Amino acid sequence: MSDESQGKRLEDRINELRAEIAELMHRLETGIDKEVEALRPKLKAAREKLDELAKTSAEAWGDLKPGLERAWTEVQKSFNEAAARFKDQGSKKSS
User: Fold this and answer.
1) Within the chain, which residues score under 50 in pLDDT?
2) pLDDT at 61
3) Domain range list for the chain
4) Closest of 1, 19, 24, 36 to residue 91, by C-alpha
5) Residue 74 · residue 41 · CB < 8 Å
6) What secondary structure, in 3-state letters, does 3-39 show?
7) Which among 32, 42, 45, 58 is least surrounded, fewest beta carbons within 10 Å?
């Protein structure tokens, strides 16, 4: 194989890889956008609970604390699940 044909072959492979990377980036961006949109209402609910808590008396803290903790747990769970999906997608693509 000549140096010229090897160079062309390498250039073709680089272009294919560049296209695959562009496709992966597009899929990741689309997935991230979806995950962010799914998290927004959960973050909003947690923020509302926190705002409600700030307006209450110390006695009401006991009543509101479980709701705030549930909202925060839900946000953390959703975030961790999204992060795990992206981590899994990245490791599947690299293998």
Assistant:
1) none
2) 72
3) 3-94
4) 24
5) no
6) HHHHHHHHHHHHHHHHHHHHHHHHHHHHHHHHHHHHH
7) 58
